[in-house]
Amino acid sequence: MKRMTLMVAVMGTLGLAGCATTTDPHEGGLLGGIQGMGSGAYDQRVQEREDRLEQLRQAQQELQTEREDLEARKTRQRREVALERERLAALDRDVTGLSRQVESLSDRHGEEDQRVQALQTRLDDLRGRMNTQQSALDALEGSGMGDAETDLRRRQLEEQRNALREEFDLLMELSLDLAR
Amino acid sequence: MRRLAGGLLALLLTASGGAAAQTPVPLDEIRDLLREQSFEPPPERSLAALRADDLNSSLADVDPYARHFSSQEAARQDRDQRAWTGIGADVRFEGDQVWLQVYQGGPAHRAGLPGRVRLLEIDRQPVAGCEVKELLQSLRGESGSPLVLTWQAGREMPAHTTTLIRERFRPLDVELVEPWSQGVLRVRDFLAGRTRPALMATLEFIERSDPGAGDAGSPLVMDLRDAVGGDLYEALDLAGLFLPPGTPLGSLMARGGQVRDFQAPRGDKLVMPLVLLIGPETASAAEVFAGILQHHGRAYLVGQPTFGKCSSQTDRRLSDGSVLRFTNREVLLPDGQSCSGRGLTPEMVVGDSVLRDLSRLMSLAMALQAGRGVVGTGQEAVVQ
Questions:
Q1: Nearest CB to B201; choose among A129, A143, A159
Q2: Would the ipTM clear 0.85, i.e. be above it?
Q3: For A146, B7, B184, B227, which has the most beta carbons within 10 A of its beta carbon?
Q4: Do A136 and B180 touch (CB under 8 A)?
Q5: What pTM value is reported for the model?
């Protein structure tokens, strides 16, 4: 008697399990499959698959666009750094010219002339800062900084180079005054 | 000539290491320099007591800010010279604890470390009880070499383990603290000819990234809590940027009482309200900058009293290539007083926990700014 009761209980469970159908093909057993085809769920699955494929295509397209943007940003950054290098090189040439001018002033007024000495000190300082600027540009190219930080760094370097140019203009003016 | 060096232990760990070659220290040259150019002439017996084997200790008896650097050390600590190789952080020792102050955009920052973390382990080895030299050696290394750090954001916070790669890195001269939208600029060092243009560029960058960010009188917040010094003239230049032309900036007193005055120059001016975050580590050039603007009511100071050092040091290269730093000037703020020994007291004083919590500090700064008419009386608010 006891054994029979157990059998019934087991059969009952199986029956209930048969009623639990799904439209997911991974879970589609015999009953589920028949049930699925008969109820139009197969078409629904095909549609879902096509939708997913479409989503994947879109995601791929977005990734491609993002990659192109990244490349474009990097190209732009490289171009801007190259441009900054050219500006710095131009300033360096000007400073070399000024340096020669200060040497000739030194010959004319004498090495002991305090005005020439002051000019020379400021010129040396400017040269030191030019070197710093150069090494900062080198570091920018090799840095692993993010895009935004690289942009900010480059902007800071541009502004610092502008400040160097202002200092150069001032020294040039002083040098011309002394040459008169 | 004009460097205001911080008197705090802030060791830069990003430069690569290397054993210094032992060369005889030119002691007589050092004695002559100190005898002739120190702000206060040192007693002869102190000069005679200088010892090559323990020079920095004996120098401290002559001048608390005097220090001798071997040529390698001098090159390593010069921020202007080159990019560093390392993790992109300063290390700071507070009692028996080791803290890292992480630079924006550096390897540690990109690996996910926040601005300031307590360091617990390096490559799974506890840092507690480590010798300073040994600890720094563990952090330094070749570019491309990996390192595992265990850290926590605060004393009660959970520990994290992060693997990062040492690399060549040059920090921003003015950092834009994340999140960028809040517009907090961090200055750690006043760099000759660099900090002012970097500040201008950063402001322009913020405006371009978020047009209108500076509208409606929103204040510029500058974080000087870790600013331990730098170039005096840069600090004066920067202060002059916020003040009308001709405004007194203070003066520089040389040996024998000779005084040179400075005024704000003409040129570009910044007119937005200004809040400065300061703390006990804010020292030297940073104190001069903050002190000038506080004196003229141009900036509100939030945080804790500053270190209290308005003396100026100069770096002189010696015949062996090493460098001697010593005090040769005292800076007087526009009220004619030096901040040495007293520091600056902020309009709003906060407790230790708030001091290191930027978001809470920002809330207070904004509240202070909103009610500036009230706090302008000089009353202090104490927030724990």
A1: A159
A2: no
A3: B227
A4: no
A5: 0.78
